[in-house]
Design a protein that fits this description.
Distance between the termini: 7 Å
Structural class: alpha/beta
Helix content: 40-55%
Strand order of the largest sheet: 3-2-1-4-5-6-7
Number of helices: 16
Number of domains: 2
CATH superfamily of the largest domain: Glycogen Phosphorylase B
Number of strands: 13
Order of helices and strands: EHEHEHHEHEHEHEHEHHEHHEHEHEEHH
CATH class of the largest domain: Alpha Beta
Shape: globular
CATH architecture of the largest domain: 3-Layer(aba) Sandwich
Largest sheet: 7 strands, parallel
Radius of gyration: 20 Å
CATH topology of the largest domain: Rossmann fold
């Protein structure tokens, strides 16, 4: 059996096309949710026409803060180990698929190894080469690499980063977000998300390093306010970001800033429709970097470093929080628009093909 262990919305978006490929190839899989995120996950499943989880390890509120996440993870791991036959069954030859760099990634890998199964890591080999940037994602990846038997790498660069780690390295050439976008773009003009009549940009900020302190979040809010003076901004309200904005007294200030409009989070297909109509994106998310690469959309990345290569030097500008870099991008963002990538290969299908030997 193939066991797909995921817990966050971003993981679900990137693993949904893998589960579609497994289903379409007639390969049996069991979807196990750690429960790290629940908000909007049903919408994502409906987007891709997938069934809900076969097993849920946690059925409480979303876990977003790093501190509570550690204690939550230990509880979930202990519960899963005590009930591993209920989660995985008596399967000595299965493959546990995990994705990315979240706590759920590491939990799934630890659970799989403890159950005596092989671990397959999707999006394996990405590195920033800075232990604490991004935090805790870089550390999570390093730990997961050591637990992995089959590394599914989104390109040759990722394969090379795994030279010193054991396990089979499979080059699937692209990130599975490419396949997720394919599904979303098929319905890009049929969604009901309101599109402004004027040119606009999108801001999507949620990473720990940008919201953990007032100083960091004030820097982000200041950047959005400055950019909005030139191009109106739709600010996507991630729950954790909204919580921190309110905590530090910045919510109303940003909400009332000229040119800034708050939008609640959308399901994946509606969000991509919004992005496809925007002038550019400001984000700290790796998934947004990848999406904009495949869409050819200009993106300003509010980070010091990125573990991803997609779009760097073309449509993607790494800000390093440098005001001069930010101003230059906004003044000349049109220069960073490129033709959308049109590669034919499907990383999700390649992953499913390799998983066939673990399914019966």
């Amino acid at each position: 059996m193939i066991y797909v262990v995921i817990g966050t919305k971003a993981q679900l978006i990137k693993m949904a096309p893998v589960m579609v490929a497994l289903r379409d190839q007639g390969l049996a899989y069991r979807y196990i949710s750690t429960g790290q995120h629940r908000d909007t996950t049903q919408d994502i499943l409906e987007n891709f026409g997938l069934r809900g989880p076969d097993h849920v390890l946690y059925d409480g509120p979303d876990i977003t803060a790093v501190g509570p996440m550690a204690s939550w993870g230990l509880r979930i791991l202990w519960r899963a180990l005590r009930r591993k036959e209920e989660v995985f069954g008596p399967d000595p030859e299965g493959l546990v698929l995990v994705h990315g760099d979240t706590f759920s990634t590491l939990l799934g890998a630890l659970m799989g190894r403890a159950a005596g199964l092989k671990v397959g890591h999707v999006e394996s080999g990405l590195r920033s080469f800075r232990w604490f940037h991004p935090f805790p994602e870089e550390l999570t990846r390093l730990l997961t690499f050591r637990l992995t038997a089959v590394h599914f790498c989104p390109g040759r660069w990722a394969v090379e980063n795994l030279r010193r780690y054991r396990g089979e390295k499979i080059n699937v050439y692209h990130n599975t977000i490419k396949d997720a976008l394919h599904f979303a773009l098929e319905s890009v003009d049929t969604g009901d998300v309101p599109i402004p009549a004027h040119p606009f940009a999108i801001a999507s900020i949620h990473r720990f390093e940008n919201i953990y302190s007032r100083k960091a979040l004030d820097r982000v809010a200041g950047t959005v306010r400055e950019v909005a003076k030139q191009v109106p901004m739709l600010f996507i309200l991630h729950k954790v970001t909204e919580k921190q904005l309110r905590r530090f007294g910045l919510f109303e200030t940003l909400q009332n800033s000229p040119g800034v409009e708050f939008r609640q989070r959308y399901d994946y297909f509606r969000f991509i429709r919004l992005v496809s109509h925007s002038e550019f994106v400001i984000s700290d998310g790796g998934s947004n970097q990848e999406e904009c690469h495949y869409l050819g959309k200009p993106i300003l990345l509010l980070r010091e470093v990125t573990e991803r290569q997609e779009g760097l030097g073309t449509n993607c500008v790494l800000s390093k929080y440098d005001p001069d870099i930010i101003r230059e991008f906004v003044r000349n963002y049109q220069r960073h628009a490129v033709r959308p990538a049109r590669e034919d290969s499907s990383p999700s299908s390649l992953i499913a093909n390799h998983c066939a030997k673990f399914s019966r």
